[in-house]
């Protein structure tokens, strides 16, 4: 798994590409994972002015889609300054000035990141848990950070391609309860059916 600096390099390449051809670059988890998240929020009739935090926003495309679906109180954070620059360019191109973007390390969140009603993670917990340097400690810190930024009874939607449902239930058992499992594409391998992607909704206890 690449060390942090190569994420930065990846986003710098995307930034260059975006400047060259106006393309938002790689969507790490593809279109259907965004649709799945937005559909769940709509099915639950989550008010459009609910505060939403996108953890590890990358190119910010999920926030753009949320804004297009009518959500108005959107914040994206990423520890890569290149990712935030990229998402700012995407935001400008789409004319979505109400999306807030900040360079933040989620494992050491600033004080103003608090009281969110919804937190969304597509792949950031995966990236943190694959960090060769004290992955277990970083996962515990992630859960602590999540508890500090997500308001009481807030929702946490996580999409992971590294962890099974059972493993995620175990990781987030302190302070969270599972509410829903979102349907994800199934694949068949050696006669056994598995999921390459797990998408769960937790609620802060």
UniProtKB/TrEMBL annotation:
<keyword id="KW-0489">Methyltransferase</keyword>
<dbReference type="GO" id="GO:0005737">
    <property type="term" value="C:cytoplasm"/>
</dbReference>
<protein>
    <submittedName>
        <fullName>EFMT2 methyltransferase</fullName>
    </submittedName>
</protein>
<dbReference type="GO" id="GO:0032259">
    <property type="term" value="P:methylation"/>
</dbReference>
<keyword id="KW-0808">Transferase</keyword>
<keyword id="KW-0949">S-adenosyl-L-methionine</keyword>
<dbReference type="InterPro" id="IPR026635">
    <property type="entry name" value="Efm4/METTL10"/>
</dbReference>
<dbReference type="InterPro" id="IPR025714">
    <property type="entry name" value="Methyltranfer_dom"/>
</dbReference>
<keyword id="KW-0963">Cytoplasm</keyword>
<dbReference type="Pfam" id="PF13847">
    <property type="entry name" value="Methyltransf_31"/>
</dbReference>
<dbReference type="InterPro" id="IPR029063">
    <property type="entry name" value="SAM-dependent_MTases_sf"/>
</dbReference>
<dbReference type="GO" id="GO:0016279">
    <property type="term" value="F:protein-lysine N-methyltransferase activity"/>
</dbReference>
<feature type="domain" description="Methyltransferase">
    <location>
        <begin position="50"/>
        <end position="179"/>
    </location>
</feature>
<keyword id="KW-0539">Nucleus</keyword>
